[in-house]
Amino acid sequence: MIDTATNTVSATISLPGFFPFNVPFGVAVSPDGSKVYVTDQDSNAVLVIDTATNTVSATIPVGLKPFGVAVTPDGSKVYVASIEFNTVSVIDTATNTISATIPSLGPFGVAVSPDGSKVYVTNSVFNGTVSAIDTATNTVSVTIPVGDSPIGVAVTPDGIKVYVTNASSNTVSVINTATNTVIATIPVGFVPVGISIQPPPRFAGVPGSNNCQGTSVSALATKFGGLDAAGRSLGVLQRADTARCHSDVL
Fold it and tell me: What pairs with residue 97 in β-bridges?
């Protein structure tokens, strides 16, 4: 665990098993920050870390060689890609049990759309595709061809695009989620793997200055009694979302 204020390691969390026999790989944090989910390839399980105590509170068996892991925005489900079992496991976080198992060919990376309606999984071994999973039914709704050996995957904050790193093609594919097609292929460095998208600021502009919608941050804070109170107002968040104006993130 790294303290972002000082960029120093503030805690080291012991996992079950003994190095090098335990092989932790993927990491995902619950929306409320209370849990961390880690895939362990040796135990073929997901380890649940309680952030209040920095200890492993549960071990959930999944398919062989789990890699990617992602939590839904409401924190109710965790999706885990098991590359050698050709499945995506769905964990019910309330019970720490598997609620569904979805077939997928060589799944590796996992990303959830901002509204929680879709999960995008890279199929890196058997074919160069991305599977879009409908979270309402936990079934694959579409399979999208991308480059060779897709690994990393990330969704833009507006849910309009999905970016996929293709390790063997040395490219990044850009998927339009409305049409489920690749709209751009970007050459990058050798063997791209990880990818992340920087979220836009919650409020556009600076105190005392109008943003592109004509509302200043200080005005919102004054109206609602502080930024925290303003942020809790759904209407303000919706207006702030449109106020970004230039919300596309690269």
Answer: 92
Asked if the model's pLDDT at residue 244 lies above 90, the reply is no
**HEC readout, the chain:** CEECCCCEECCCCCCCCCCCCCCEEEEEECCCCCEEEEEECCCCEEEEEECCCCEEEEEEECCCCEEEEEECCCCCEEEEEECCCCEEEEEECCCCEEEEEEECCCEEEEEECCCCCEEEEEECCCCCEEEEEECCCCEEEEEEECCCCEEEEEECCCCCEEEEEECCCCEEEEEECCCCEEEEEEECCCCCCCCCCCCCCCCCCCCCCECCCCCEHHHHHHHHCCHHHHHCCHHHHHHHHHHCCCCCCC
Rounded Cα–Cα distance for residues 157 and 160 (Å): 8
Q: What is the arithmetic mean of pLDDT over 83-98?
A: 95
CA distances to 77, 197, 221 from 157, in Å? 19, 8, 23
User: Does residue 179 surpass a pLDDT of 90?
Assistant: yes
Give the residues across from 40 on adjacent strands.
24, 45
Residue the block writes with tokens 């098993």: 17
Predicted TM-score (pTM) of this structure: 0.80
What are the Cα distances from residue 6, in Å, to 10, 53, 161, 178? 9, 20, 33, 41
Hunting for tokens 């490219």 — which residue is that? 171
The share of the chain scoring above pLDDT 70, in percent, equals 77
**45-71 tens-digit pLDDT:** 999 999 999 999 999 999 899 999 999
